[in-house]
Amino acid sequence: MRIANDAGRLVLVRDGGGLDVEKASLGLFGPDPQDVYDRWAEFRAWAATAEGEVRPLAPETLQAPAPRPRQVFAIGLNYRAHAEESAIEEPGFPTTFTKFPASLTGAYAPIELPSDTVDWEVELVVVIGKRAHRVKEADAWEHVAGLTVGQDLSERTVQLRPPVPQFSLGKSFPGFSPTGPELVTPDELPDPGDLEISCSIDGEVMQHARTSHMIFPIPVLIEKISAICPLLPGDLIFTGTPSGVGAVREPKRFLRPGEVLESRIAGIGTMRNRMTAGPAR
């Protein structure tokens, strides 16, 4: 199953178009995409036989598939090559921080650059569909609603300002967490643990890897995080980025106004976000 947030309305994605869930269900499910995660099992059962008019979807109207999560977790240094390029020892436990929900935006939304040190980080994003607390690795996928594409955009000056790094603030400017264009359930993918992931700027490939290169795969992340705090329906986990970020390049390379950042995960979809200039500095 694939779902999307079309201008604030929940739709089932079929044949390149969208089936409006509220209309097709005669009000059994409302239009708000966030609400469906609290009723995920019921929704999936209904969606399996849902019928109705499928209308075209315009990319520019697609917003975040889970637009108002209660919690947004993010994982740092979860690909060996990224840890190596960052000259940091491979972690023995997931390096976890938060991105504040106000930073969420859609897969085709413009993103304002607050400075000239904004970096890219394409990521596979997990959306939780069932409360997970003290969940074992073997049972973790049962708690996943679906997967989507994300970018963990990072203002490196704020993030790394001494004496103590401010990961959450540096990664939570408005628009710094685009997700989409769709949410895809794991059963739609041949192997949800091994997906091609890439990002480019104006067509130039900056990152390219497979999600099977993660140090801590999705089931392990869910086990480790849920051992400490419950994961709630609709919560997000940004699972980490591959090598190729701008801050470790020589010379350093950051995003510029006018550039188009394209983020792709095979089997899920592609986001295209144009950078715009922020206030005069």
From TrEMBL:
Residues 72-275 form the Fumarylacetoacetase-like C-terminal domain. InterPro entries: FAH, Fumarylacetoacetase-like_C, Fumarylacetoacetase_C_sf. The keyword Metal-binding applies. It holds the Pfam family FAA_hydrolase. Keywords: Metal-binding. Belongs to the FAH family. This is 2-keto-4-pentenoate hydratase/2-oxohepta-3-ene-1,7-dioic acid hydratase in catechol pathway. The lineage of its organism: Bacteria, Bacillati, Actinomycetota, Actinomycetes, Streptosporangiales.
